[in-house]
Design goal:
alpha/beta; elongated; 5-stranded parallel sheet; single chain; 7-stranded mixed sheet; binds flavin-adenine dinucleotide; 29% strand; 310 residues; 6 helices
Length: 310
């Protein structure tokens, strides 16, 4: 059995594994895809102390750092169920889709999240070539350009306000007849001179010149007319879905499906900790996930020294 079993191999999971292994305890990582969302990222310019790197390069560095230590890395394995310990201080079980089952005294859940996609032509083709999901990450790349934000909930309106300070012009596109963001955000949005809001607007296509985005089509859901916007960027803000479906019967989740944690990363299940984008932590970023993964591993270590036989 492991002392710490980490589920997920993104920035949070890698940090948890390094912190646990450095305590000299039996550490394992099971990951569906080691590297996580970082693998899908191009330029990274906010990984503090590294002014510029690229996703695949950082993902390789994460794996190399983990492999500096005696960590059992089980890549390309998906967890399908968590079984809490039968008694205080007992073993927690993680069942894998391949039929195997792993046991550990503590578990760190770091299965991350995925951005909900629009599912329209051009979205996949122009991902990282104008189609973006993270305004904190990619906003500065669109300095002085025209962009659209798709989604009029809190994250979409926050993104539009944030981007309006950087880019030349923002069009906010909302499917519904009205924005769903908090009133105070909507007021702020409407006060900005370089923002247009389109409601009842359904994005139907993102298009470009083969290399980069240069426009977007949306349909006016009232008149049925199709409109074209000329722009260089599309920020999709229609939801971040935590990869926690497999935990819904065992671990307390927020209404959005995020794993509820305390300041040590402890979940509702004794001995089970969590970190990163899969949790209720505000702001989903690489440096934040790494800090949280470290916290969860130290929380797990604290738990181990308190529950082991003297
Ligand atoms: P993830 O990176 O999502 O990793 C989750 C891990 O869990 C993966 O290994 C996955 O395979 C695994 N997993 C999931 N389900 C299971 C399961 N059931 N069983 C086993 N393993 C499982 N942040 C920045 O700070 N700067 C940026 O420039 C930046 N750019 C981004 C660009 C894009 C296109 C995207 C999508 C995100 C970007 N982010 C950026 C956000 C950043 O990537 C995330 O905040 C960060 O990766 C979260 O780390 P995590 O470890 O919590 O989760």
């Amino acid at each position: 059995a492991f002392d710490v079993l980490v589920v997920g191999g993104g920035p949070a999971g890698a940090a948890a594994a390094v912190y646990a292994a450095r305590k000299g305890i039996r550490t394992g990582v099971v990951a569906e895809r080691f590297g996580g969302q970082v693998l899908d990222t191009m330029a990274i310019e906010n990984f503090i102390s590294v002014p510029y790197t690229e996703g695949p390069k950082l993902a390789t560095a994460l794996e190399q750092h983990v492999k500096e230590y005696d960590v059992d890395v089980m890549n390309l394995q998906r967890a399908k169920a968590l079984v809490p310990a039968a008694r205080q201080g007992g073993l927690v079980e993680v069942q894998l889709e391949n039929g195997a089952s792993l046991r550990s005294r503590t578990v760190v859940l770091s299965t991350g999240a995925r951005w909900r996609q629009m599912g329209v032509p051009g979205e996949d083709e122009y991902r990282n070539k104008g189609v973006a999901y993270c305004p904190h990450c990619d906003g500065p790349l669109f300095k002085g350009k025209r962009v659209a934000v798709v989604g009029g909930g809190n994250s979409g309106v926050e993104a539009a306000i944030d981007l309006a300070g950087i880019v030349a012009h923002v069009t906010l596109i909302e499917f519904d007849g009205q924005l769903r963001a908090d009133e105070v955000l909507q007021r702020k949005l409407r006060s900005l001179p370089n923002v247009d809001v389109k409601v009842n607007a359904q994005t139907t296509e993102v298009f470009g010149d083969g290399r980069k985005v240069n426009g977007l089509h949306y349909k006016d859901r009232v008149s049925g007319e199709s409109h074209r916007l000329d722009l260089e960027g599309v920020f999709v803000q229609i939801g971040l879905l935590p990869n926690t479906e497999w935990l819904k019967d065992t671990v307390a989740l927020s209404p959005r499906g995020e794993i509820i944690i305390d300041e040590r990363g402890q979940t509702s299940v004794p001995g089970v900790f969590a970190a990163g984008d899969a949790t209720t932590v505000p702001y989903k970023q690489i440096v934040i996930a790494m800090g949280a993964g470290s916290t969860a591993a130290l929380g797990a270590f604290d738990h181990l020294i308190r529950t082991s036989a003297p």
